[in-house]
Structure formats: C-alpha cells, structure tokens
Amino acid sequence: MRKVKIANTDWEVSEIALGVMRMNVLSSQEAKSVIEAAIENGIDYFDHADIYGGGESEQVFGSAFTELSIPRDSVFLQSKTGIIPGKMYDFSKKHIIESVDGSLKRLKTDYLDALLLHRPDTLVEPEEVAEAFEQLEEQGKVRSFGVSNHNPMQIELLKKYVRQPLLINQLQMSVTHHPSINAGFNVNRTNQEAIVREGSILEYCRVNDITIQPWSPFQVGNEKEGILFDHPDFIGLNEVLAKLAEKYKVEREAIAIAWLLRHPAKMQPIIGSMNPKRIAITCRASDIKLSREEWYEVYRAGGFQLP
Ligand SMILES: NC(=O)c1ccc[n+]([C@@H]2O[C@H](COP(=O)([O-])OP(=O)(O)OC[C@H]3O[C@@H](n4cnc5c(N)ncnc54)[C@H](OP(=O)(O)O)[C@@H]3O)[C@@H](O)[C@H]2O)c1
C-alpha cells in the first residue's frame, strides 16, 4: 500500500482509507475480520462519524479493535461531528465537545487523530468552533482538524477564526460522480457540467494543501441509484473497467479506485466495504498506476464528454 502525505503534518498514511459507516450491522467476529483485512492489506486510516448507525458503528469498531489488541498508535482514527440526523446541523461548541466525548467513549480511545466538521451548518459561529477546537486540542482529545462537504468560502470563514490548519475535506467522488472535475473541464461553457457547484473546491484544496478524501467511491451518485458495477446505465463504463482490470490483473473495484488515485491532487479515497475479500481486491488499486490515456478513457466511458 502506497502512502499519502497529509500536508502540515508529518503523517504518511495509507492512500486508501476504510470508512466504517456500515459497521453497525456486523457481529463482533465479522467486525474483527473486516479490521484485520484492512490492516493486512495496508490500510491504517479509519473514518468514522458520531452518527453512523446512530453511534453503533463506532461502538462495534471500538470493541473489535480493542479485542484485537492492535496498538492504538499504529492506526489513524478519524471521526466527524455536526449532524443531528433529519433535524439540523450543529457546530456549537457544546455539541462539538459532547460529540467528541461520545466518539472517544464508543471507540474506547483517549484521542482522535482527526476530527472533521461533517456538513456545513449555516448557523455556524466560527468563534465557537475555534474555542471547541482549542479545548479539544489542549485536552489531548483531538490531534488535528478538517472538514467535510465544505466549499472554499466556508473553509475560508472557518480559517478566519480557527488557529489549527484544516487538513482534510471529504467530498463525494467516484468515476460517475465528480462535479468538481467536470466544472474544471467546462470553464466558459453553458452546459450542465460547467456549473460550478462547489466553488472550484478541487483546485482550492490543491492550492491550500488540503487532502481530499473521496467518499462513496463506488456509488453512482445518490445512494438510491446504487453501485456503479453492473449498473444498467453504465454498461460502457463497466466494459472499460473490465478491460483495464484484465490488463492490470485486478478486479474492476481496483480500477475505480486507481482512477481517483491517478489524479495528482493526491486524494485518499474512503472505501466502505464490510467484506474482507472486497477490501483485499480493492486495495490492489495501490499497486497500479493508470496512464493518462486510460484515465481519460474511464472519464469518457462514465458518460462525460470533453469540450
Ligand atoms: N462525509 C460524508 O458526508 C460521507 C458520506 C457518506 C460516506 N462517508 C464515508 O465514506 C465511506 C464509504 O462510503 P460508502 O460505504 O458509501 O462507500 P462505497 O465503497 O462506495 O460503497 C460501499 C458499499 O458498496 C457495496 N459494494 C461495493 N462493491 C460492490 C460490488 N462490486 N457489488 C455489490 N456491492 C458492492 C459494499 O458492500 P460490501 O460491504 O458487501 O462490500 C458496501 O455496502 C463511509 O464508510 C464513510 O466513512 C462520508
């Protein structure tokens, strides 16, 4: 597994991370097998959120991880805060601090390596976020901070008050869902893909050394549309993925992740499989590097035209 450097830290972490949003439904034994498969295949970075499975995902992971007796400092544990599901977003100091305390308890750990603000709260008072981050850092509960689903100006607003560097921004991205890449290709045009929905977030993160963590890298778009493999709307794409998989002697999952890794933004995709075999075949993405021609072939096969 190749490593990716997180700017503004001395961290060299696995370039593929495992997201454990779906771990809540696993038995303790299944969860242990998933964690072991991730580690055996070189993953040392795990993404959580206080809300995944209503907290159950962190709980199941925390117990399994402890039972496996894996040294805490051999992995990076990241969690997220700020969503009250179905009701509101809450970036208040009180909520951020209580949320972290809950995550630490469920994960059975003393500290998080990274804490991300999960989805923008328009009622954010960045002074409060700054106070919460100061307190959490001072108490040794959180080592570093970042955001998720934020656009450039939202990050700038936080940066005006928050002292710590914002290291990470999680964005939904897959071979079929990448509005920030499309917007970059379609500058000065009037088609749908030209719409800058996220304020040039891809370029902003590159300029500011913020690591992008693509989430849901196998989903077509929104979750109702399902997984892109064997999807009837993406037959051509699946043929190209299969052709490249054969060439590199891997599975299509590895090609879909290799496509994200080939981008020079040095992204760290977060895969969400809870299947040890699928985790192993997906991690093979880190063994290969697509050519420029292949990257563009996959892009076009996803149904997008170059201007
Ligand atoms: N920041 C945010 O707002 C945000 C939002 C959503 C998610 N996330 C993070 O991103 C992580 C990944 O999200 P995700 O779980 O949606 O990622 P994903 O890797 O795109 O999807 C994983 C799901 O797809 C299934 N799958 C994968 N390949 C398949 C195949 N070939 N055939 C059938 N099913 C297949 C997996 O099933 P198996 O388990 O059977 O492999 C699993 O249920 C989450 O765990 C979370 O940490 C962040």
Give a verbal description of the structure:
The chain is of the alpha/beta class. The chain has a single domain (3-301), classed as TIM Barrel (Alpha-Beta Barrel). The chain has eleven helices and twelve strands. It has helices at residues 28-40, 56-67, 93-107, 126-138, 152-161, 179-185, 201-207, 235-248, 252-261, 276-283, 292-301, and strands spanning 3-5, 12-14, 17-19, 45-47, 76-81, 83-84, 88-89, 114-117, 145-148, 166-172, 211-215, 270-271. The strands form three sheets. It has an eight-stranded parallel β-sheet with strand order 11-10-9-8-5-4-3-12, covered by helices on one side. Strands 1-2 form a two-stranded antiparallel sheet. Helix 1 (28-40) packs parallel to helix 10 (276-283) and helix 4 (126-138) crosses helix 5 (152-161). The longest helix is centred in the N-terminal third of the chain and has 15 residues, at 93-107. The radius of gyration is 19 Å and the shape is globular. The mean pLDDT is 97. NADP nicotinamide-adenine-dinucleotide phosphate binds next to strand 12. InterPro entries: AKR (IPR020471), AKR_Detox_Biosynth (IPR050523), NAD(P)_OxRdtase_dom_sf (IPR036812), NADP_OxRdtase_dom (IPR023210). One of its GO terms (cellular component) is cytosol. This is Oxidoreductase YdhF.
